[in-house]
């Protein structure tokens, strides 16, 4: 057992999914057995596919997937910035606004009606009912339109190895350099 494990002086990481498809998080799991090695150096305090933790805990590295597309996303993004020393935009949606911004040409209210009301059956709950979905913002926008971002790891999703490299570089006190050949669009 490593010293980091016995004293648990591992660096801490929290990830959040904003307006994303969870593809970035899925790809992160593709690190496979290397995730075990990474966990020698890193404690994942929050990440919806790995840890059952609500909210954004304090962490050394905070990672966001997805665009900022609704009011809840704004709150989570601000919490991430407040609680994490280094903030990473994971994937094209968080870094650049990506495919999720295709909805920007549509009226937000009409889109909610079309998707949730127009296609609903009798048993569907209305998003405008007792437990409404968070209000859509007029546009889906990248993370750095709302908070300061320290590191960008583009791709859709970024390659698992590039994600791991980004975290390892930060642990070494370096700014990750994502060269063009490493960009992945699957
Ligand atoms: S960057 Fe691609 S994989 Fe990641 S959330 Fe956006 S659409 Fe999904």
Automatic annotation (TrEMBL):
Molecular-function annotations in GO: iron-sulfur cluster binding; oxidoreductase activity
Domain of life assignment: Archaea
Pfam families the UniProt entry points to: Oxidored_q6
Keywords of this entry: Oxidoreductase
Residue ranges of every copy of the NADH:ubiquinone oxidoreductase-like 20kDa subunit domain listed in the record: 21-169
Protein name: NADH:ubiquinone oxidoreductase
